[in-house]
Write a structure and sequence with these properties.
single chain, 168 residues, alpha+beta, rod-shaped
Length: 168
């Protein structure tokens, strides 16, 4: 007879170490894969949001420039500038502009005289050389609101205000 090289006691001393180790490795790898997946998704979302934020800033800036152009480029005197400010309601859609296709800008203007009263372009005496001291200078505030984003999940709104004045 052949002698037994592996006594029965050696089989009884082994307790199955590899099975718990394999389960532990699988669980750790699964948690690691889930963490990496979530991080990648959050990074993608934050990148898209940052891009839309920048677009909305540029849309608001373009709207403010358009408002300044409408206010000063086409008016010859302070009364006409005051009238242009009072009537200003620009709604700019950038659908045909590369990089701003999903953006709009809304521009309004407020006008006050030096004495903090609202501009009254219909009152011609406010624009004479002999006008009262408080109405010889007009202050304009152009407010441009740029809105970008294809839907509610990714949407950004930026506001820019620009100030200017015009004297008699």
């Amino acid at each position: 007879m052949c002698p037994n090289q592996f006594p029965d006691s050696s089989y009884r001393d082994q307790r199955g170490f590899l099975l718990p180790l394999a389960l532990f490795i699988l669980v750790v790898m699964g948690v690691l894969a889930l963490t990496i997946s979530r991080t990648a998704t959050q990074t993608n979302t934050s990148t898209i949001q940052e891009f839309i934020n920048i677009q909305s800033f540029y849309a608001a800036e373009s709207g403010a420039q358009r408002g300044m152009q409408a206010l000063f480029l086409t008016t010859a005197n302070r009364q006409a500038t005051d009238q242009a400010c009072v009537n200003m309601a620009i709604n700019q859609n950038f659908a045909n502009i590369d990089g701003l296709q999903a953006c709009t800008a809304t521009v309004i203007c407020t006008c006050i005289y030096q004495n903090n009263s609202a501009c009254a372009p219909a009152v011609g005496t406010n624009y004479l050389q002999t006008s009262a001291v408080g109405v010889t200078r007009s202050f304009y505030t152009i407010r441009s609101v740029g809105t970008c984003g294809p839907g509610d999940h990714y949407r950004a709104v930026r506001t820019i205000e620009v100030g200017a004045f015009r004297e008699q």
